[in-house]
Amino acid sequence: MAGFETTQSQIMRPVKKKNILAVCSISYFICMGILQLFQWYVEKDCIYEATEIDNKQTRQWAWSSEIKAHDDKYTLSAEFKKEGRSGQGKITKSIAAYIDNDGEIIVPLVKKEVDDLYARLIRSEQ
Fold first, then answer.
1. Per the UniProt record, which residue ranges are transmembrane (predicted)?
2. Is 126 helix (H, G, I), strand (E, B) or coil?
């Protein structure tokens, strides 16, 4: 929309530019509103979705993340669906457990937590 408006503003008279700018601006805010509603009501804090194919079996994974305002508790949730079966699990820890003294995220620790949650869900499936 911005590209269209820029192109038209180079070609058209100033009176018509206002109409094009108004239509593009309104369209932008309508599209952003629809996208925000989709994220709130359909995705529901989902940060990653994947399909895992393992020995002719297919699992659908959905990972989500949540931290409430003014709270130190961070929750990482995972859910899978496979041929009518499903499972879910979550980890809730203080966010300070994942951050060092310099304010850097400790990636190996986060990876270990994600791997442990994954392994726990796979074991519970069998």
1. 20-42
2. coil
